[in-house]
Amino acid sequence: TWESVTMFLAVIALLCVPARASPEGIVQINVRESPYNAVGDGVHDDHGAISMALGDITKTGGTVYLPPGAYYVSAPLVLSWATGVTIRGAGPVPASDPPTIATRIVMATSALQITSCSHVDVMDLLFTSTNHLPGVAVETRNSFWVTLRNIRFESIYTALLVNASNTVSLLDGLIMDVYGPAAIDIGAPAGGRTDIVHLTRVTANIVSAGNTDVTWVHIGQGANTVRMQSVGLVNGGHGIRMDTNFPTLNAVYPYAIPLFLFADDLEIDFPKLDAVALAAGRVCNLINSYIQGSQTGSGILIGAQWTAEVQVTNTRISGHARAGIAVYGGYDALLSNNIVADNSQAGVGTASAIELYNGTSTVLSGNRCGPVQTSPSGGAVARHAYGIHITGGAEYVVTGNICTGNQLGGVKDDAGAAQRVVSGNLPL
């Protein structure tokens, strides 16, 4: 697309600009030193001082260092058309209980906008807000290779907005008490594409206050590939939601739906809504995860606008108000080797462990759909109506599942599709 070509040319232009290093080598700017003279007391407005430092480092590349302190900024700090820049705080406070970070950015609206940049590191900072008005702690826009390391977000509206950017990583992040609709928002709502976002060792939680309906990770139109590893999402609304404001894929805007989500070692605990809501998208691969305790929804919901594959493997899905997994759409779904246990918490017999309403070429195999057994002898009974309930869909194979211990039975096939295999499940 033209947007991708424009971004590529901009990055090449940045890489071809020679850095002017200081006599000591890599330029390092301390914002507390002259001529910047930031105060860092949490009251004085340090926006001008830090902005001057960012402007100077843009010309040379290097590091902007913020010593321990609280730096109040009345407007967003903007880093634009820069390459090879690090923005660094002082890191953790030694022996602090609870652990915290020594350098804080206290924002009145938004804190940091990274626009048309490449190879930028932001590390060892805590972002917080003086109010809960709309604002973004860190936004990347039309940028390439931005890495956030050891970043903490507390009492803010939105933690991270990734907009039309490529290769953005959040590593070792902590998000607490978010007031906006989404903590991490990934996509390109105005057009273009966001490609390759990594979320690794990230934890999010509503601890004392915030929006109890927050979506921790929202993946919207324009998002291409999102990879999540060792991520924990506690409380809030949705753990993950993929959706779009565009009804169909079209030639005018070819990235109208988000495309790929790959998640490994994911934990989602006690969300208010569906833990993983795949409302619209193309491919989701979820493995080795633990998803529990939705208060009003299902563990994993595959929506009618889902256009292709879902693979859920080696995952425990339990304690949800409704179904463990509910399938309303998609092609080539593979749900295998999962424990889908003790769902239908909203009422005995109101939902089944796995519910297949629609979808094409669906395979359910090797799943345990029933109660959590508390002794080797078994005997526990789940609240599910059935282990697997099929009410629609074309082409499905349901085999090798253990569905004992449910209220009404194991596998119930009310669809009777012409192309189907339903065999080898327990109870026989």
Class based on secondary structure composition and strand pairing? mainly beta
The coarse overall form would be elongated
The major pleated sheet works out as:
33 strands, parallel
**Total DSSP helices:** 2
Looking at this protein, list some descriptive labels.
428 residues; mainly beta; 33-stranded parallel beta sheet; 7% helix; disordered N terminus; 2 helices
Explain this structure to me?
The termini are far apart. This protein has helices at 2-15, 47-60; strands at residues 28-30, 41-45, 62-65, 69-73, 77-80, 83-88, 103-107, 112-115, 118-129, 136-141, 144-156, 158-163, 166-178, 182-187, 195-205, 215-219, 225-234, 240-242, 260-269, 276-287, 290-292, 300-313, 316-318, 325-327, 333-336, 339-341, 354-356, 360-365, 368-370, 386-390, 394-399, 409-413, 420-423. It is mainly β. The protein has a 33-stranded parallel β-sheet that branches. 7% of the residues lie in helices and 48% in strands.
